[in-house]
Amino acid sequence: MSAPAAAGQGRPLTMIGPDFPFPYDTFRAHPAGLGCVPAIHHGTAVAVIGAGLAGTVVAYELARMGLRPVVYEAEQIGGRMRSASFAGHPGPVAELGAMRFPPSSTTLFGYLDEVGLTTAAFPNPLAAATPDTVIDLKGVTVHGRTLADLPAAFGRVARGWSDALEDGAGLSALQAAIRARDPGEIAARWHRLVRRYDDTSFYRFLVDSAHMRSFADRELFGQVGFGTGGWDTDFANSILEILRVVATGADEDHRGIVGGSQQLPLRLWDRELPASDHWPAGTSVASLHENRRPRPAVVELRRTHPRGLTVTAADGTIATYPAVVHTAPVWLLLNTIRTDESLLDADHWSAVERTHYMGSSKVFVLVDRPFWRDRDPTTGRPAMSMTLTDRMPRGVYLFDGPLAGAPVDPQAGDEGPAVICLSYTWTDDSLKLVPLTAAERMDLMLDSLAAIYPDVDVRSHVIASPLTVSWEVERNFMGAFRANLPGHYRYQERLFTHFMQDRFAAAHRGLFLAGDDISWTAGWAEGAVQTALNAVWGVMHQFGGRCHPQNPGPGDRFADLAPLRLPDST
After folding, report:
1. What is the dihedral of CA 246, 249, 253, 256, to 10 degrees?
2. Residue 219 to residues 137, 216, 367, Cα–Cα distance (Å)
3. What is the pTM of this model?
4. What digits encode the pLDDT tens for the residues 231-268?
5. Helix or strand holding residue 175 (H, E)
6. Peptide bond before residue 18 is cis, with ω within 30 degrees of 0
7. In degrees rounded to 5, what are phi and psi of residue 396?
8. How many CA atoms lie within 13 A of 415 on its CB side?
9. Strand, helix or coil at 58?
10. Through-space distance between the first and last CA atoms of the chain, rounded to whole angstroms
11. Cα–Cα distance between 480 and 470 in angstroms, integer?
């Protein structure tokens, strides 16, 4: 789903903007660094709640400034970047959380390069790296290598969606402004869309478009979509959420992280900090913690001094800090963490309470080899393909080669084990799986696949117990990612801008919010990274620090780039 790049032609899209078009990627990579704090504060402890991607970025960058991050984690380092191994098979991984990353995530990819991780093309439907895509709807199965291979209805719906975006949102002009990194032009176009569509759902946008008036076309689009798969689970969400995705190319050209996405937060945790006057050689975030492990879960967060925040951990230890960065899902502040109500004002508590999370489930199996490469002797097609269906699995993804994480020895003809994501579902489809065990989920999906591929015995290739997750019932997550409903823009603006605390009453300062649900692009790792850098700037600013004049930070440029603030009275 590409648009002409009139202005800024030849430059890639980026997930910088459109709400706050600050250049996080160049800010992160600038040789002057992110900033510094006065030497008197070197070694000062700052609590970081959550060791997911946002938390490890915050800890890593605060340590580079000379502050001492103290990280609390309820489960394991990685958060929703969770790469699980199959029992008895340490090589292949199942990406239970984040698994595909668009190149427009330029700040994220900067960190991937910094820690030495590589990526490979992700096998999305109809992607260049996908040998074949099967679409099975209402009992009818079609194959395609590209959109042009599918029946005419698919092309008509794809054109209708593209035309709806152009007519209703001026997509190509907005994308051109993003490519050109022109804040003024981005704001002129995006702010107009925010005012127009804040109260509009995705489905309403489709219904109101002359190009998507047919229910049959909307149904087909919802079940299949284009780029990452079906869109119908997002129909109730704000159209602004979807426009951000398509405007920034977040649904295009996805890459997977070889060896598993969890490696990024793990490597940031263990990575030696650059040589500095702050820490001795060999210092890492891990080495600043006892036994190189985070402290346990936070159970209480309260104000005990005008400038101090006191954190109680699950093991009973209590410590007080001048600043705390909360990177875990914000709902934890409502339930599992007893939080002093005075730490946020009423407007921010409203935004936290009304945060809307999407549920999601995945089911993975390990198979002996990538048997789907076998060719049907009659049709010449692969034995099995990436599959979109209206049956229970909804999305089925096939992983071999680098993304399977299994060694391959071409000399010996050893293809090695391979991985199948038997099901990737959201919202209501995810809830259907919640009561089922991993084995029951696997059986259900294999039965569905048998109806689509009657001549393929997938079960005979399974060599390990299945792995599964339903993020909505995970105690420390309660959802896969935030997704705003119509009318929620004001809440998101409050959460995203929370790092700018000079205007706050003293009682509300010192706690900083970060994580992908604080970002404008929840569900994408880039959003977690961007809000982490916002929080780092906020903590630095609180300690009287500053950015290098040649590398101003997000707070330094906030007045020029601030998101639109909608009035509450209209």
Report:
1. -100
2. 11, 5, 33
3. 0.95
4. 899 999 999 999 999 999 999 999 999 999 999 999 99
5. helix 171-180
6. yes
7. -125, 125
8. 13
9. helix
10. 35
11. 8
